[in-house]
Amino acid sequence: MSFHVYLSGEIHTDWRDEIRRGAEAAGLDVVFTAPVTDHAASDAAGDHLGETPSPFWRDHQSSKVNAIRTRTLIEQSDLVVVRFGDKYKQWNAAFDAGYCAALGKPYVTLHDAEIVHPLKEVDAEAQAWCTTTDQVVEILRYVLKA
């Protein structure tokens, strides 16, 4: 069975590569997709549409362009992994988790125990809470090979 997995959230560490490597080492048939992880490129996604009167409208314009990719890839995925790092508040990741919940799309969260409390509602809707990328790979192994 082939699986499509969308890797949402934190962009400042190599967690996506760890999951990809783990899935490959386990021989799993997984297609991984992700949002644009180049922060500057994401912020500028709508700049080609013209000047905006304020930073709010620039962000608004770019977020709508980014949503084309994000919504499409989440909807096409079989599972979404939502990573919350400890350095920045990933409001976009929380939104992606909520979008998954609204769609009935299975998702797992990936974060440290220190932020369990602020993520309690997000975790309550998730199919699993992982603290390591190895745990994510083990979920994929189980789902695909059990």
Secondary-structure blueprint of this entry?
Elements: E1 3-9, H1 15-25, E2 30-33, H2 39-43, H3 55-76, E3 79-83, H4 91-103, E4 107-110, H5 120-125, E5 128-130, H6 133-145
Parallel strand pairs: 1-2, 1-3, 3-4, 4-5
Helix pairs in contact: 1-6, 3-4
Morphology call:
globular
Total helix count? Answer: 6
CATH topology: Rossmann fold
Q: Overall pLDDT, averaged?
A: 95
Major sheet: order of its strands? 2-1-3-4-5
Radius of gyration: 16 Å
Order of helices and strands, N to C? EHEHHEHEHEH
Largest sheet: 5 strands, parallel
Number of separate structural domains: 1
Look at the structure and give the CATH class: Alpha Beta
How does CATH name the architecture?
Answer: 3-Layer(aba) Sandwich
What are its keywords?
6 helices; YtoQ family protein; globular; 48% helix; five-stranded parallel beta sheet; Rossmann fold; alpha/beta; 16% strand; YtoQ_family_protein
Q: What would you note in describing this structure?
A:
By secondary structure, the protein is α/β, with parallel strands linked by helices. The chain has a single domain (3-145), classed as Rossmann fold, CATH 3.40.50.2300. Helix content is 48%, strand content 16%. It has six helices and five strands, in the order βαβααβαβαβα. It has helices at residues 15-25, 39-43, 55-76, 91-103, 120-125, 133-145, and strands spanning 3-9, 30-33, 79-83, 107-110, 128-130. It has a five-stranded parallel β-sheet with strand order 2-1-3-4-5, with helices on both faces. Helix 1 (15-25) packs parallel to helix 6 and helix 3 (55-76) packs across helix 4. The longest helix is centred in the middle third of the chain and has 22 residues, at 55-76. The protein is globular, with a radius of gyration of 16 Å.
